[in-house]
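Allow me, if you will, to draw on your knowledge of protein folds for a short while. A protein sequence and the structure tokens that stand for its backbone fold form the material at issue. I would ask you to consider whether the tokens describe a fold that such a sequence might reasonably adopt. Thank you for your consideration; the sequence and its tokens are set out here:
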Amino acid sequence: MNVLFWIIFIGLCIKTGALLVSFLVNFFVNPGGAKNLYMGLDLSGVKAYSQSYYVHLASLMIALSGLKAYIAYLVVRIFLKFDLSKPFNHVITVLIDTISHVALGTGIVAMIGSASSDWLMKRGHDVPINWGAGEILFFAGVIYIIAVVFRKGTELQIENDLTV
């Protein structure tokens, strides 16, 4: 699992960097590049409609990808700090709690992006982005429950260590 999350983390970092670079190149160097922003993503209709909405959507996409990469980084850190003999410790609990908060923030960013895309589509502009807000918020809820369990497990393990 550790290797898998390293691969996911590196892949998400590459995706975030590619989105950022292609957006900056499109915005400052090649204004016609909105037809193929990243892996066939066409936001040229949005850019033709409004430069500010184009920047808004692209910024949300970059932020969403960056937040996903940060979550993967936090999971990698869990694997580096995890000790099977004492699985409930303060460091792991804080990392899982941080993941739940970042996942909630990621879900909110995805909801904003989804609402913006829906608003633009009602005005006749094609926005081919699947934000996945519902899935991310569900993930955040599950991780929050796991964080609460780990918090309680850490308290019990500290009590157990003190009594022994």
Q: What stands out?
A: The mean pLDDT is 89. The two ends are 33 Å apart (CA to CA). The CA atoms of residues 23 and 155 lie 47 Å apart.
